[in-house]
Amino acid sequence: MNTIKALFVVIYTLLIVVFGTFLIAAAIQLITLDDIMNFVGYIYQSTNSRLITACIGLGIALLGIVLGQYSLTRLKKAHILHFDGEDGPTSIALSAIEDIIKRTLSDNDEVKDPKIIIAAKRKKLVVSLKVQLVGNFSIQELSKILRAEITSKLQKLLGQQYHIVVKLHIAKIDKKEAETASDFQENRRLPFPEYPEE
């Protein structure tokens, strides 16, 4: 089945290349208007030539429809994750998993503006996480904590059926903002000065 689909893709690609080459040749006048008219005249010469041309056109149209449906099906499958739940097969959208991860990260004050991309490959779930960090901390320790939190949350959701890989990309570390927030919290804790009674 995969061989047939690959053959369809190759044939359709060749047809598009031939059509594009024809347009280029016509634009730079390698093919003249007389050549085009002679070709059209040849098609109209007999019933067989018209029938062959109609079959070729129908084949190209059907090939385009099949490839379009195949591409849409693959695109839909790529955005849905399937796993076996306790009560039977279950499917979940990858966007829902992204929301779960964002809610998990929202409890962590050191993480800011997370951007998440999830890809499912067979029994492997790859989570690409791009974040900005706020504060003074060990990047290695925080990376371990974030990976552990995300992996634990997804394993509770999906079970052990998928191998979860978390790729972490730190886009920015903002220490000034953390220091400002820390100073603000400290100022809030300062007691009001005591004034002598008059």
Produce a short descriptive summary:
With 198 residues, this protein is an alpha+beta fold. Helices cover 59% and strands 23% of the residues. It has helices at residues 2-27, 33-43, 47-78, 94-106, 139-158, 175-189, and strands at residues 80-85, 88-93, 111-121, 124-134, 163-174.
- State the assembly state of the protein chains: single chain
Number of helices, where a helix is a run of at least 4 consecutive DSSP H or I residues: 6
Low-pLDDT regions: 178-195
Number of strands: 5
Verbal overview:
By secondary structure, the protein is an alpha+beta fold. The chain folds into two domains: 2-78, no CATH class; 86-184, Cation efflux protein, cytoplasmic domain (Alpha-Beta Plaits, 2-Layer Sandwich). It is 59% helix and 23% strand. It has six helices and five strands. Strands 3-4-5 form a three-stranded mixed β-sheet. Strand 3 (111-121) and strand 4 (124-134) form a beta hairpin. Helix 4 (94-106) packs across helix 5 (139-158).
Features:
198 residues, alpha+beta, Alpha-Beta Plaits, 2 domains, three-stranded mixed beta sheet, 6 helices, elongated
SSE arrangement:
Layout: H1 2-27, H2 33-43, H3 47-78, E1 80-85, E2 88-93, H4 94-106, E3 111-121, E4 124-134, H5 139-158, E5 163-174, H6 175-189
Parallel strand pairs: 4-5
Antiparallel strand pairs: 1-2, 3-4
Helix pairs in contact: 1-3, 4-5
